Amino acid sequence: MRLNKYFGSGGFLPLLLLSVALSGCSSSPDFKSRAAGLTIKNGLTEQEVLYIDPFVEITEHDIQQAVREASKSSFLIPSRAQIVLVQSGATVPDAVMQQEMMNYFSVSVYSGLSPSKQRSPVARKNEEQEEAPQPNYIRSLRLASAKARQDKIIVYWGTLELGMPDKDNIQVVWLPYQSGEIPKETKLLRYSIRFASVDVKNGMWVMYTPT
After folding, report:
1. DSSP code of 2?
2. pLDDT tens digits, the chain, 211 residues: what are they?
3. Cα-only R_g, the chain
4. Whole-angstrom Cα distance, residue 48 to residue 33?
5. Maximum C-alpha span of the chain
6. DSSP-based helix, strand, coil % in the chain, nearest 5
7. Is the separation of the CB atoms in 193 and 144 below 8 Å?
């Protein structure tokens, strides 16, 4: 297994890319265990994490106000900052990520299961009919984080991918891993990650992706 770390300029947020090379046609127990641990169906959406509601009316004033607030915010995370770490689709972030983050930050963890997806279809329909308040995941987490004196919330999404040879057997083409057995022609496996960093104080956010 190979662990690559990427650092933004002036910041300490590592973006991890875990790659596993296959020997012949053998499968990888580590890769499959990671796949089993990701409950994508209950994973957080970007809308939940970034608080994007397409049904809320937005004015030009709202946009300009957000621009002014963002210009005053720093998206860099200093070393030893207090952060809340969340893995989408998991009750707790995996141990490798927790350990890596602890090398740079003071880390607390929180569940990455979507509160809206965990409700039954009947419950969601009843709430809609009653016009009940919809769960606001990120605001609830910001409030809890503020009470614990945390600075940032780091949410990450993991994607499991298979490296398959192209038709000329020259280059590797990466395809998302679904489930089941790993195809015999697979050359490489990787677990790539993207992050969202949310400021507890004002809700400003930034996305990081591996390069």
Report:
1. E
2. 333 333 333 344 544 434 333 333 334 556 656 655 554 678 899 999 998 888 889 999 999 999 998 888 777 888 899 999 999 989 999 898 899 899 999 999 999 999 876 555 555 555 555 555 567 899 999 999 999 999 999 999 988 888 998 888 889 898 888 777 888 888 888 878 889 999 999 999 998 876 5
3. 19
4. 27
5. 59
6. 30, 30, 45
7. no
Cα-Cα-Cα-Cα torsion 157, 137, 91, 102, nearest 10 degrees, comes to 70
pTM of the model: 0.73
Residue 140: other Cβ atoms inside 10 A: 12
Tokens matching residue 171: 């280059």
Q: Do 192 and 17 touch, CB atoms closer than 8 A?
A: yes
Distance CA 73, CA 78 (A): 13
For 3, the token pair is 């662990």
